[in-house]
Every structure is written in structure tokens, then in C-alpha cells.
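Table S2 (text version). Query chain:
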Amino acid sequence: MNEREISTAVIRRLPRYYRYLEELIDSGVERISSNELSERMKVTASQIRQDLNNFGGFGQQGYGYNVKYLHSEIAKILGIDKKHNMIIIGAGNLGQAIANYSAFEKRGFVVKGIFDINPKLVGMTVRGIEVMNLEDMPEFVKRENIDIAALTIPKTSAADVAADVAAAGVKAIWNFAHTDLALSDDVVVENVHLSESLMQLSYRLARKEK
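Corresponding C-alpha cell output:
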């Protein structure tokens, strides 16, 4: 099936499947049925089967899913079966937190460089990486074959910086600036709004309290 026909909801569930399968591998589980996976994930078995059937199914009737095989196939679908070189633009608290989160490397996302325009931050070291001046970014992107840029900068400068990043050759932007970015079709953008997630939590809390 063409990937464009697959819903965003299905794609957003795939990392969750991957995480649960990884936990099963760590626990020594070799195979699992959709019903057993359903109990762990709190997703219906029919939903699991429908989601995975978008990509070929992977299960066998009467056997279920081979956990390692399904884990590796989902890794291929998500593109995390290979390494992705990343840069972080914005060396403030959020940028440093992302750089310090070592689990990203386990998923194949390797932070190669950090950039900022603040002279107080340029030159400091975060997890062994020296913060560079943003003006050095284009050359660095080409030299280090950077795939992804994480933007942890104010929204006032996000559009201009995103355009510069795209012009340098980066094909994917993980945007934490408090604004939605829209670039040309050959640049993939994931807009992340932490405050929206917190407000959703607040909504659920308010409903529970009622």
C-alpha cells in the first residue's frame, strides 16, 4: 500500500508498537498474539491487526507474531534501522536536554553538532559536543551529512532559521519552536508543541475531577 494512504493515527502508533516489542525482547518473549499484545498496550486486537496489515501483516494464524522479526520490520518502516545524523539549533535548556538524552542514539539518531547565536553559549560543551556559532551551520551540514535538525529556538526566528537549514540541505526538521512551520514538499517537518500536550493532560484531569 502506498504510504500516503496510511493514516497519521496509524503512523503515530508505530513507535509505540516498537517500544512494547523491545520490552518483550528484553523479557525473552519470542512470539506473541495480537490478543496478548492488546492486553499490554490497551489497544484492541483488531486495531493492531488492521495497523500491521497496512504494511503486510507479519503474523501467522495460530502462531501470532515473531517478536524479533516484527520489531525489525517496524524499525525498517520507521526508518530507524539506519543512522540519522542530527544537529540541534538552540543550546538553551531544551536543546541541552535533547543533546543529553542518550536513548536517541539507541534509536539511531546521533547528535553531531549544536548551534546558537548567543555568545554566552557558543563554546560551551554539552555531552562532549562544543556549541558552535550558527553561521557555521551550512558548511557543517554538508560536511557531516546531516539529515535532521531540531529547532529549540524562539518562534520569532524559527521561520528564517528553518529556511536556512533547508537551504543547507537538511531534509527533516524537528520543530520545538512555538509556531507551525511549513516548508517545501521536499523538507519533512514535525511540529512539536509541548504546551498542547500539557493542556490535553489538563483537560483529562478536569474531566476526571468532574
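Notes on Table S2: The chain has two domains: 3-77, 84-196. The two ends are 44 Å apart (CA to CA).
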